[in-house]
User: What shape does this take?
Amino acid sequence: VKLKARIGIDVMGSDNSPADLLAAAASLLPSLPSAVELIAIATSDQETLAKSLGLGFLFAREVIGMEENPLLALRRKKNSSLYIGLRHLKEGNLDAFVSAGNTGALISAAKMVLGAFPKILRPALLALMPTKKRPVAVLDVGANLELKAKHLIQFAHLGIAYQKARGIEHPRVGLLNIGSEASKGTAEIRLAYKTLQTLPSFAGNIEGKAVFDGEVDVLVTDGFTGNVFLKTAEGIASLVLDRLSAHIPSTIRAHLDDLRKHLHYAEYPGALLCGVKGTVVKCHGYSTPQAFANGIRGAIEFSSIHFIEILKKELEKEGSFAYPES
Amino acid sequence: VKLKARIGIDVMGSDNSPADLLAAAASLLPSLPSAVELIAIATSDQETLAKSLGLGFLFAREVIGMEENPLLALRRKKNSSLYIGLRHLKEGNLDAFVSAGNTGALISAAKMVLGAFPKILRPALLALMPTKKRPVAVLDVGANLELKAKHLIQFAHLGIAYQKARGIEHPRVGLLNIGSEASKGTAEIRLAYKTLQTLPSFAGNIEGKAVFDGEVDVLVTDGFTGNVFLKTAEGIASLVLDRLSAHIPSTIRAHLDDLRKHLHYAEYPGALLCGVKGTVVKCHGYSTPQAFANGIRGAIEFSSIHFIEILKKELEKEGSFAYPES
Assistant: This one.
């Protein structure tokens, strides 16, 4: 484990104030080795606070708002916190970059600045979710809304490489669908199924219910469905825990709180932007400062295990996968 | 409440044996008023068993299998249990029809035999799901995989009419999306949003997480996303309850079991095929016999409150809604 890491933290353009996010980042410092540096990227009015909290600081003249059109914003704001963070990541001044800002802008800028791995047509947002066995990597959870079969196939390879990089020797891949038969789903899903069938790791179509039994390590879906999947899981978990907590004696309430942490998206280390040449972690715009801190923790973990280098090698091994026309 | 009802029950073509489904239906009889008749629709080899269990019997020469192409099967099998049930429903010999057979065939046959209400372009499968407040009607949960804006708009009106028929005076409608802003989602969702905005009952876009807070009474979505939504909710609820049950003393395990019932799709009274002129309840092909019995119970409830007549009136009141071109 490499203990030296420089993590760039964009505290601008989310639903939380920069001050709250700076405080959240700083709260991690006591538990981090001194060779891990957290570097805030923000407008100059945040500099005094950031430094007083023990954070590094990179100055950004501009901010891209949550509601801005991503492509227009990127054309106009080359000095935004988002761009500056990604440029430093590209140049090797940072080992990872964390943002809770405009998702569309972050993804487009990451593609432009960092570039994607060979054969990766579109990067995806990947989230790790709990199951009855080990966690499943779900992708895409929101980067691409409407997808062709070739994108779904690419996500399968990306997910396999990701889980191999996490140490799972033979990850199994499922395609999120409304039934297990090959004939189920939209035309693009059926086409993806046909190609994926040739992969030894392919476990076929899988329904939302079965995912949580832990039968697959990678769950492939489009960004719209994946996002709904993620947030539905969060909502229903909260519903169940709320209903239960009324009936539960305090002696076992600790188990409930523990479970709540594991099932709340907010406790997850953000979503990894998977497929670009650099470790980029996206936190929800509405993330609590606590969740944002966990996103940073995730980024530190990714950079400490040289995740991107391993991912790159695994993708090379996955080799010469082909895409169908659709 | 009308205590006289004749419920047609198609016990063919599901993953369960006809004998198991006959037994499940018969298990309801002791708790039903004698004026409620349960009438099995099956091949002749089931007649002796059905009658010995106290069920009525309608003979069907043919069965449509789960894996059959719906349109081909309907063209060839005019004497299938599914067709026969729907024809009796149309002719008023039955008050409701329950099936766990081929979904595509059931929907197509229902449209052909029963017809749809005026302005209803496509019937939808509607499921009632639990929230922190009152249950939400989710449609479509699997009848139509790819939809235009006009179909989503129609589902909003159908959902409103449904909830009004259930006694909710001013149902609120949400559009399932990946963010609350009008700019979120696919092109068809954005177009639907624009038209729905003119409805006073429209609460805007809603995320999977917020649905369970109970802010809306109707959740509009396409059949692919809705099906994933439903099954994800079932899966995560099962995960949470499984993890918890290990830590829970037997004294409060009853609460857990109670909750499990409410959160398991299998405990729901099937999905209502909403929009056709007749009460048709679809149970999952993999429904347990117990869930199938609950589907029948739901159908009895629907017919006892003259649900279809109320729905028809509410749809007329909803009146002259218009569809955008897309």
